[in-house]
Amino acid sequence: MASIAVIGGTGALGKGIARRLVKAGHDVTIGSRSAEKAQVTAEELGAAGYAANADAASGKDVVIVTVPHSSQGDTLALIKDKVGDAVVVDTTVPLVPPKVMRVQLPSEGSAAMQARAHLGPDVKLVTAFHNVSAHHLDSDHAIDCDVLVFSDDIEARKTVVDLCPGMGLRGLSGGSLGNSAAAEALTSILIYMNKTYKADGAGIRFTNLTEAPAIP
Ligand SMILES: NC(=O)c1ccc[n+]([C@@H]2O[C@H](COP(=O)([O-])OP(=O)(O)OC[C@H]3O[C@@H](n4cnc5c(N)ncnc54)[C@H](OP(=O)(O)O)[C@@H]3O)[C@@H](O)[C@H]2O)c1
């Protein structure tokens, strides 16, 4: 079992991810700008610990960052020198309110590329979880959605793919960090589909992958 911090773990996505990681038996620390706020979520989920974000990010195997795009840079700058050898998983989708149903990727190409710029070349950076609805994660039901995982570090990518089945998800390698743009863009399409087809959290499934992990 891994030691995992969820930065912004009091929010919609972070709490959902943390809930499933706790259930899978991992040693989960909830991070927040406020340790008191993190404590409330940690106690609700039965997580092992809670701390202010920078402390939460220290000494972990995996650090998952779940904050709004507008605070991605400041948050990554805060934890950059704390994460050490950890695999850092950035979940940021670069939505531009109010037109969140339109793909509007940043000039750098993706939130992943922005994360790389903020963290520098030495941090083991992975991106994932862009297409999974927070409210499905924050439940005990099965989730009909694949998780695309991107990184230029093959071992780090595998670490995150392997976390997924325990969370009730199928993790699939999506290749290099640059490919993250595709999953980030898909989120706007999923939001559009939720509205158009009155879906309760549309997801994605890939087919004909005979050698991929089984759907849990
Ligand atoms: N919601 C989804 O279904 C979903 C799905 C896929 C990907 N995502 C991505 O996941 C990320 C988080 O989404 P979310 O819906 O969970 O967001 P959220 O609930 O609005 O915010 C998550 C947490 O971020 C922290 N935060 C808010 N403003 C901040 C600031 N200015 N500086 C530092 N931390 C701040 C807050 O934690 P504290 O107040 O405790 O510090 C908050 O609980 C986003 O990038 C989003 O695109 C979301």
Concise structural overview:
This protein is α/β, with parallel strands linked by helices.
Please explain how this structure is put together:
Helices cover 35% and strands 18% of the residues. The protein is built from eight helices and eight strands, in the order E-H-E-H-E-H-E-H-E-H-E-H-E-H-E-H. It starts with a strand and ends in a 20-residue tail after the last helix. It has an eight-stranded mixed beta sheet with strand order 3-2-1-4-5-6-7-8, with helices on both faces. Strand 7, helix 7 and strand 8 form a beta-alpha-beta unit. By secondary structure, the chain is an alpha/beta fold. The mean pLDDT is 97. The protein has one domain: NAD(P)-binding Rossmann-like Domain (Rossmann fold, 3-Layer(aba) Sandwich). The chain is globular. Helix 4 packs parallel to helix 5. The chain binds NADP nicotinamide-adenine-dinucleotide phosphate (NAP). The site of NADP nicotinamide-adenine-dinucleotide phosphate has 26 residues, from helix 1 and helix 4. NADP nicotinamide-adenine-dinucleotide phosphate binds next to helix 1 and helix 4.
